[in-house]
Amino acid sequence: MQRTLLIAIIAAVGLVAIASARIRSGQQQQTVAATRIERGRQLVLFGGCNDCHTPLKMGAKGPEPDMTRALSGHPSQLVVSAAPKLEGPWLWAGVGTNTAFAGPWGISYSRNLTPDRVTGLGIWTEGMFIKTMRTGRHMGVSRPILPPMPWQNLNSLPDDDLKSIYAYLQSIKPIHNEVPDAFVNPLPPQAAAK
Questions:
Q1: In 41-75, which positions are buried (b, 16+ CB within 10 angstroms) versus exposed (e)?
Q2: Which domain holds residue 110?
Q3: Comparing C-alpha atoms, which of 80, 125, 116, 71 is closest to residue 101?
Q4: Which pairing describes strands 106-109 and 100-103: parallel, antiparallel, or unpaired?
Q5: 4 within some domain
Q6: Are the C-beta atoms of 79 and 109 separated by less than 8 Å?
Q7: pLDDT by residue (tens digit) across 30-87?
Q8: Is residue 20 part of a domain?
Q9: Residue 184 φ then ψ, to 5°
Q10: Taking CA 98 as the corner, what is the angle to CA 120 and CA 135, rounded to the nearest 5 degrees?
Q11: Residue 174 contacts by C-beta under 8 Å, 6 or more apart in sequence?
């Protein structure tokens, strides 16, 4: 009887130790994830991602980022019909929301970086994100990323920093915003005729 009681006590202590270790491990994983997300937030802020991927709104002191639409890209309801004719030393021009850009390449739109599964990065894997930053190709394999996206600068970051940026972008509020496809020069006839 005492032996059975002793075995039961040892088993209970063992189960408590295992559960405690799992809790500590889970807390450590949460701490690592939170640290990675915070590092990603810092890199996104320092890298100026909001400058192009967050639409501007008119504030009390002039244009300011509309943080209710943070990193959601070019507003789907804002239609840009044709690129302005650029003369002289001008290389490119931006739309008033600072989310559409025209230059010798055509017209490009800032993409939705939120984790929306239909219009943003919600279905992207960490590997796809890193490959995109390394190759300058959408989803790492398809069309080229157009100017003014400075993917070449992001390409210089170590994998850990790119993983942190990805983790942060996956942690923010998803915003459903269908960004138009880019017009690559030569512009389609219907856009060039406008």
A1: bebbeeeebbebbbbbeeeeeeeebbeebbbbbbb
A2: 49-192
A3: 80
A4: antiparallel
A5: no
A6: no
A7: 777 899 999 999 999 999 999 999 999 999 999 999 999 999 999 999 888 777 777 7
A8: no
A9: -105, 135
A10: 50
A11: 114, 115, 116, 117, 120, 122
Q: How many domains does the chain have?
A: 1
- Degrees, nearest 5: CA angle 176-191-72: 20
Question: Which residue(s) pair with 56 in the sheet?
Answer: 65
Is residue 31 situated within a structural domain? no
The one-letter code for the residue type at 96 is G
In a domain, 66, yes or no: yes
* Type of residue found at 34: A
